[in-house]
Structures are given as C-alpha cells and as structure tokens.
From TrEMBL:
It comes from Pararcticibacter amylolyticus. The keyword rRNA-binding does not apply. Keywords: Signal. Pfam families: DUF4842 (PF16130). This is DUF4842 domain-containing protein. Residues 506-695 form the DUF4842 domain. It comes from the Bacteria. The keyword Signal applies. NCBIfam families: LruC_dom.
C-alpha cells in the first residue's frame, strides 16, 4: 500500500448513500462516526462449545467416534472435528464456526462401524446432546408402490360429507370422504377410487371390484367392518391408522404405510399382493399363500402364528410370531424374525441374508436353512430337532443348550456357535454377541474408526476451517500500527488451515498448519507469526518454522521479512504479480492439553514491522500481544489498547480481520474495504449480527467489483 500515515476522512467514507440498519436506524457513511458496539472484535466467526455424549450401551464402555460436519456429510459436508466418546466420557470441543453457519451435522460411529447422524441447530455458545444406538435397518428392496403415489395425488372429482351406503359405477372417478365422524359403505362397480381424508371414519363395508382403489390418507383414523378385494387388480392403501373388527382376507393389492390392526386372521391368498412399510398387528394368525412375492419393510406382529403356506415372503425388517412359525414356502429374511414358542421348517427354504437373524424358542427342521452374503444367525434358546435337511452357506446355528437331535447336515461354510455378532437396530431388537473390535495399537479406539490404527499416540484429525482440500480462512492486515492505515487491509494477506491431531483421550498431540502468503501490499518488511495456547516448553520437534525464544507461550515464526518472501505486492492491478508462497508447519505438543481447552480456530496470529522493531506487533482486535511486544506503544497515536481492549482505535476500528473464506477477494491498493464491500459498515455497526455474508455474497449491491484486486 502507499505509505501515508496521515489518513484523510474521505478514505473512511462508506460508498452506500442513505444506508440503514435492519432496525431502521440510520447508519452513517463515515466509518469514524458510526457506533461500534462495545466489545465487538470484528469476528466473522463465533466460539461454540460442544458436549456430545453417548447413550448407546451395546458396547459397554467402548469408545465411539463423534464427528462434527459443517453440512450433511452425505451431500458433501466437510469434517471439522472428531473425537472419542463413551458411556462414561463425552466428547468436548470448542470450535470457531463462521457466524453464518446455523446448523452442524453430528455423526456417532460405533466400534462396529454403524453410525447415527443428527442435524443440530447452532443457536448459542453451547451445544449439548447425547446420541443413542438407533441405526437404520437393512432393507434391501424398495417396498413403496408407484400405484399408491399416483392414486394418492389424483385430485378429487367429488366429495362425500354425510353417512350412507354408496354404489360407485363411474370409471376413473375419485371420491373423497372429507367429513369426519361419519359411517359409510361402498360397492365398487367400476374402476373408481375412494380416498378417506376425514378423521374417525367408519367403513361398514367396502366391496372392491375391477381396478377400484381404496386409499386411507396419512393422519387419518378408520375403523372397518369388512373390506373385500375381489380381484387381483383391486387396490387398498393405508397411510393412516385402520382397525378391523375381525379378520382380513387379501385377494388384491395391499400397501400399508401406516398402522394396520386386524382382530382375527390376516390371510394373504393366492392372488394377493402384499407390501408393508408400516406396522401390522394381527390378533390371531398371519397366513401367506400368495403366488406373488410378499414384502415386509416394516414391522409385523402376530399374537398367534405366522404361516408361510406357499410362495415367497421377503422380510426386510421385523417379523414376530408370539406362538408358532410354519415354513412351507420360501422365506428370504434380510432382517429379524422372532418366534416365542416353536418354529416348524416343513418344506421350502429358510434363507438368511447379510447378518439376518432368526430367533426361536424351539425349532423342528425338515427342510433347508441357507445363508447368503455375510454371516447370518439362527438362534434357538430351547430344543432343536433336526430331522432332515441341510444347514448350508454362510450361516451360524446357535443352540444355547447344544443341538438335541440332529439327523441333518452342515455344509458350505455353515457351522454351530453362539458368538456371531449381530447388532441391535430398529429392526432387530435382540441382536447377538459382542462386537469384535480390532485394535492393533491398543488405544481402545477400534481400527475401523481410528485414523491412526497403528499409532497408540494418535487417533483423530481435527480441522480449521474444515477438512475440505481447498478450505482455508484468510487474515488481512494493515501494517501501520499504532497509526491507522488506508483500510485496504492488504498489507499482509495470509490464508491458513490447521489439522490438529488428538489421541484416544481427545488430547492434542500434534499441530499441522499450512499458511499461504497471498499478498504483501507495501514496502514495509513484515514478519508473521502465531501464538498458540500452550507454554513454549510444551512444544517440541518444530518443522517448517521457528519456535521463538524469549516467549512464555509457544510462538511460531513463519517468516520475518515479507519483502524477501514475495517479489511483488499482488495488490496493484495491471502490475506483475508474484506466486502465492506456501509454508507447512508442524510441531508436537508434549503437555497434551484437551482439545476443548486448546480449541480449533485462528489462535493468535500477528505481524510485526521488521523495519522498525520486533516489538511492533499487530494482532486481531481483542487478541493480546506476545511477551516480546513493545507495550509502551499501547495507547499511542491511534491505538487505544487498554482496559481489556486490544488493537482497536478510539472508535473501535481494527488493524486486522479474519475472514472464514478461502477465496476472499481482498481490496486493491488504497481501496478502503468499506467502499469495496458495501455492507461491511452495516455489519460492523450491528456488532456482527447483520449481513454476516458481507464478504461472500456476490449479489448486486454487495461489492464494488472494480475495487477488488484481480
């Protein structure tokens, strides 16, 4: 920058006429005359403390990994922090988050690799929560019905608002029962649709023929006498709650996405098509005899027996028979089947896929059991009677008392045993065994979730701003302290990024930093360094920088003369530019402070005027000087450091800012930042509450693009 220490007021004018705050108060165009709120330190980030606990008891006191992302990790979100938590100890960390970030995603990963994700609002200075064991099920087939979607979305052609019996004889008609607390009956004599949208509706009877459809909307409660699907193409969909007086016999298509209760038998007949994505309870028996494949992606509970008489039944989630299970067809179990009394495997096949589980009190087998994919489990707590048939494939047969009668065979990898680990989930409420946790380095963090599985001194990487390869924050300095500069904030422009390595106890063991000297806009010979929140004696093995002597705290000097580092200023458009210079710094922290006290943020970066004295330091507003600063300069010229304030003028203006953006477009030489970024003054006048995107928003009116260095 041009070296004029006397600054005219015109250099501080803000280039938006008649600017007003969101509150309606007038904001002056002159930065010197606006009111900077007391204590405002020109921060574009705020400090947030996180306390993340674990209530997942599946692994007793084993370590789970907590990861904090700045957005949905499945949609490209970047990792910020990672650490250990257990039933005993929470993961505590203090993060600097950009002010515009309103939510984070927290992922808990268990020792077996299963994970749970929570989106958490960031509204204050503290975020505290405990994450449980709930995990997604293993559904392997999509069980939604395209027919249901189109029928549900079709507009109504007429409405029913009074009780009565209705004969429907018009094809493609869509009748909506929109009234609540009424009683209706239907004879479908054409391919029409009835949609129940009113609540507490009683259906005395519904006789569906041809291609007719009956839809119960979400949130609706219905009681039913008899609903008869009289052909294979008739369709019944429940998205709410339906309760039958007696049994239900299915000859057409049933899709249940809600709660479906039958006070009697539920019979799936030969022409029936069955899909369950919700919850079905049957007071008597569930009998499946369909020639079509039946799909269960939800939960089915029958108080008596489940009988697979023929055909194929796919269980993707939860099937519970409180009395007996009879297998005479093909059961493809991807989830969990529980039988309280006895299972009879008479014919067909019981197939188990990819960590599925079949749990029965007693079991009598006359046909085959086969395991597919990763190992699955058959678990018998009582008596096993294997009269014939083969147990084959990747399946483990667990009889806790030993197999009492065995005239069958085990082949193709099948074996007996009870140690196979099957995790508890929303579909499998029982599970089995203890998760095998490989831990080569013995630090109690499972190899699968340890970023350093062969180094017991390290476990996790934490980042500021994030782990995105191009992520960095940008420091922009004026180098005229204690006099004000021209507020182009380009005398030293440095991008930086940290990777902080912690151990299994969330203690900091190593600091890795990358600094990029982007611009050095002026003739001053400036040095750059960072003070870290540990004692100098607690730092070892420094590479890429210098551990400064004479300091109480650890101060790392990156360079001492910017003019030796960069041949051009990179601030004057049209003049030759110099390449960005990169510095990689690393050091070990022998005292191992907790990450919660060490923090993740900018720490305390500063420049000093090498031409004048090492003691002429310039820090961010609110940051204290190092032990080598010339404190006699405090309060001189334009500086008003004192009484808990650091590096601000009498009107609260700073000499440096930290912008949490890797591609911050800094002002060209002698271009006041408030005239370059047209909401900078409003942001400052609001104490950082308004226009938090002043630096990143490229919409019209936010920037004077001709003032930005390109």
């Amino acid at each position: 920058m041009t070296r004029y220490l006397l600054i005219t007021a015109s250099l501080l004018f803000f280039m938006v006429s008649s600017c007003t705050k969101d509150t309606g108060d007038t904001v002056s165009e002159d930065l010197e005359s606006i009111s900077i709120p007391e204590g405002f330190n020109w921060e574009n980030s705020r400090e947030v403390s996180f306390t993340i606990g674990v209530s997942d008891a599946r692994f007793e006191e084993a370590i789970h990994v907590i990861s904090i992302y700045d957005a949905d990790p499945l949609a490209g979100g970047s990792l910020i922090a990672r650490g250990a938590a257990s039933l005993i100890n929470s993961f505590n960390v203090k993060l600097a988050l950009r002010t515009s970030l309103n939510a984070v995603y927290i992922v808990k990963t268990a020792p077996d690799g299963t994970s749970v994700t929570e989106k958490v609002a960031v509204n204050g200075a503290l975020v505290s929560l405990s994450i449980s064991s709930e995990a997604s099920g293993k559904a392997v087939m999509q069980a939604k019905s395209s027919a249901a979607t189109s029928a549900t979305e079709t507009p109504c052609t007429r409405s029913i608002t009074v009780s009565g019996d209705y004969n429907l004889g018009t094809d493609n008609e869509v009748i909506c029962v929109s009234a609540s607390n009424i009683t209706v009956g239907f004879n479908f004599n054409a391919s029409s649709t009835v949609r129940i949208t009113g609540n507490n509706v009683r259906i005395n009877y519904a006789n569906l023929n041809n291609n007719s459809k009956l839809i119960i909307s979400s949130g609706v409660t219905v009681s039913a006498g008899s609903i008869n699907l009289n052909s294979a193409s008739t369709y019944f969909e429940n998205n709410g709650t339906v309760t039958f007086d007696g049994g239900f016999s299915l000859n057409g298509i049933l899709t249940n996405n809600g709660n479906f209760a039958v006070n009697g038998n539920l019979d799936l007949n030969s022409s029936g098509t069955f899909t369950n994505n919700g919850t079905i309870t049957v007071s008597s028996s569930f009998q499946s005899s369909s020639n079509n494949t039946a799909l269960n992606g939800g939960k089915i509970t029958t108080n008596d027996s489940f009988r697979l008489n023929s055909g194929t039944f796919i269980n993707n989630c939860f099937l519970y028979a409180k009395n007996e299970y009879h297998n005479n067809g093909t059961m493809r179990n991807y989830g969990y089947v529980r039988v309280d009394r006895i299972s009879y495997l008479n014919s067909g096949e019981l197939g188990l896929y990819n960590t599925a589980m079949f749990s029965s009190a007693n079991l009598t087998m006359n046909t085959g059991i086969r395991g597919y994919g990763t190992a699955s489990l058959v678990k018998v707590s009582g008596v096993s009677t294997i009269n014939s048939g083969a147990v084959s494939g990747n399946v483990v047969y667990c009889d806790q008392n030993g197999i009492e009668t065995n005239y069958g065979t085990f082949s193709g990898g099948a074996k007996t045993g009870c140690d196979l680990y099957i995790p508890v989930s929303s579909c499998n409420t029982e599970g089995n065994g203890t998760a095998p946790i490989a831990d080569r380095d013995g630090d109690k963090v499972a190899d699968a979730i340890d970023q350093y599985p062969d180094d017991p001194t390290k476990a996790f990487n934490n980042y500021y701003p994030s782990n995105s390869p191009d992520a960095q924050s940008t420091l922009a300095f004026e180098d005229t302290w204690p006099s004000k500069g021209d507020y182009d904030l380009n005398d030293v422009v440095i991008g930086y990024r940290y990777m902080i390595v912690t151990d299994a106890n969330n203690k900091v063991v190593q600091v890795n930093a990358t600094y990029n000297l982007i611009a050095s806009g002026g003739t001053n010979h400036n040095g750059f360094g960072i003070e870290f929140p540990v004692k100098r004696s607690e730092v070892a093995d420094v590479t890429g920088g210098t551990l400064e002597t004479g300091q109480d705290k650890a101060v790392i000097l990156v360079f001492s003369d910017s003019r030796n580092e960069q041949s051009a200023w990179n601030t004057i458009p049209g003049e030759p530019s110099a390449p960005v210079k990169t510095y990689n710094i690393s050091f070990n922290v022998t005292s191992k402070p907790q990450i919660n006290s060490f923090g993740l943020g900018a720490y305390n970066p500063f420049i000093w005027n090498h031409s004048l004295s090492r003691g002429v330091e310039t820090h961010l507003a609110g940051k204290s000087s190092t032990a080598l600063a010339n404190t006699s300069l405090f309060g001189t010229q334009d500086d008003r450091t004192g009484s808990g304030k650091y590096y601000v003028t009498a009107t609260g203006l700073p000499w440096a800012i930290d912008v949490p953006q890797s591609s911050f477009s800094y002002p060209a030489e002698s271009k006041d930042i408030s005239k370059t970024y047209l909401y900078f003054a409003r942001w400052a006048a609001s104490g950082g509450a308004n226009y938090t995107d002043w630096y990143s928003n490229t919409a019209s009116g936010y920037r004077q693009n001709s003032f930005i260095y390109k």
